[in-house]
Task: structure prediction
Amino acid sequence: MDLPILSFASGASAGSLAVADDVFAQPYREALVHQIVTAYFNAARAGTKAQKTRAEVSGGGAKPWKQKGMGRARAGTSRGPLWRTGGRAFAARPRSYEQKVNRKMYRGALCSILSELIRQDRLIVVDNLDVQEKKTKALIAALEKFALQDVLLISEEVSEALYLSARNLHWVGLADVEMIDPALLISFAKVVVSQSALTRLQEQLS
Result:
C-alpha cells in the first residue's frame, strides 16, 4: 500500500510512502477496539474510594434507649446503616480497575484503528512537522493549508518549537511515537503524522 505524502510547509504533494498491509490494511474490529479503549480508561481510574462500615464509624457503643416502653422501634446501636450517622451496609473499598490486555490484542487494536483512519481519509502523512518559529500563529497558518480544526500531530520526537507553538491550542493534540495509544488516536477528527514517525510506528507494530 502506498500513502501520499504532503509537504507540511506548502500543503503540496511530496511523493508517496510504501507501508505494510499487515499494519495499515487491517479490517476494523469494533469489539476489540472497544475492549482495549475501555481497559485503557479503566487503568487510569484511581480506585481510591473508601467508606466506613458500622464497625468502623465512631460511637454507637451504648444502646440508644431501653428495649421496651419507649414507644419506638428497638435499636441496639446508633451506627447502623439506617441511621444518619451510621456506617454503610456495603462500604466501598480501594480497588484496582486494571484489566489484563495481551500484547497481541493491543497491537491488533492499534492496527485496526490506523487502518480505519486511512479508509476514512482521516490520516494525513506529511514530510515533517518542523516549525521554524516558536509561535502559535505559525502553526495555525500551517494547519490552515489542510483545513484542520480538530487534529492530533504525531512526530517522531516533539521539538521545543512544536510544543511551544501547539500548547495554547485546545483543538490540537501533540504526541510522539512512544505516547501513541488507542484512546488518543480516536479522540481527534484528523491525525497528522510525519513520515519518520509513521515509519517508526510501522516498525513497532510489525
About this structure: The mean pLDDT is 92. The domain at 2-42+100-205 is CATH 3.40.1370.10 (Ribosomal Protein L4; Chain: A;). Residues 151 and 188 are 5 Å apart (CA to CA).
